[in-house]
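Worked problem 6 (solution included).
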Amino acid sequence: MSTIIKGCSHAWPKLDYEDWKDTLNTIHLWTQIVGKIRLQAMPWQNHSWHTTLYITARGFSTGSMPYKDGIFEIEFDFENHELIIFSTFNSNAIIKLHPMTVADFYKKLFRELQKLGIEIDIHATPNEIEEAIPFEENEINKSYDKKAIVDFWQAAVSIHNVFLKFRSDFVGKCSPVHFFWGAFDIAVTRFSGRKAPLHQGGMPNMPLEVMQEAYSQEVSSVGFWPGSEASPIPVFYSYCYPTPADFSKQKIRPTEAFWSQEMGEYFLKYDDVRKATDPEDMLLSFLRTTYEAAANTGRWDRENLEIKND
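Solution. The predicted structure is:
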C-alpha cells in the first residue's frame, strides 16, 4: 500500500505544468543555488555526481558535505516549508520558505551560512537555462505554492522508490538515484563499462568539458522531468549514449511509450503512469524495456552486468 505524504491526496498526484510553472521556475533556481554550494564543498566525483541533490523524507537534501573539521548539510523541508542548514559547528539555521525572489533567497542563504562560519563562493549564475540572470539580480522569479510543492515532492518520492527498485537489478557501475538541479530532473544511469566517443555538448550555459566528462562512458539513462514552457508535459525519459542506429526500433512497453525522433529518446507521459491501475508496474516496464533496448543494440555484456531473478 502506498504511503501518502501529509498534505497530498494521492501517491501519484496530478502535475499540471501550467498550474505550477511559476513555482517550478522559482524552485528550480533555488535548487541551483543550493546545488552549487554542494558542488563547491564536495570532492570531485565522476560524471558530476558530487553536485546532485537527493530525495529525502522531508524534501530534497545535499547530504553531508565536508567543511574544515566538520560537516554541514542543507535540506529543503517541504513538509514544514523551511530550508534548514545543519552543521557540526553551531545550531541549525532555518529559512522559512514562502514567496520570495531568487535574489532574496540567495542573500538570506549566504547570510545564514556566514553566521555559521561557513565561507563558500559559487558561480552565482544559473546553468542549463537560456536566460541566465545572476541569482543576486533575479527579482522576477518569486512564486511558492505550498500545495504544488507538496504534490511535486510526493511524485518525486514515488518516482524515487521505483527508480531504486529498477537500480537493484544491475551489478555493473550505476549512479545513485539523484536529482540534477541543472535541468531539474530525477535520474539513474547504468554504465556498460566501455568508453564512449567524445560528446559534442549542446546544453545552454554548460561548459563543454563538463558535458564531455559526464558522457565519457557508455550509458543507458532514465529519468523524470516536470516540463518546460517549450514542452509543458511532465515525462519519463530514456536514452543511451552513444545511440545505436536501431535503438529507436525496439519493442518498448507500455504501449503508451513513444520514440521522439527530434530528441532521440523514448518518452512516457507522467499522466499515463499516474492514471494506470498499477503505476509502479507500468513505470518499471518502461525503465526495463528501454534499458534492454540500449543494452541489446549496444551489445552490452548483460550476462555479467545484471542480476538474474529466477
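Discussion: The chain has a mean pLDDT of 95.
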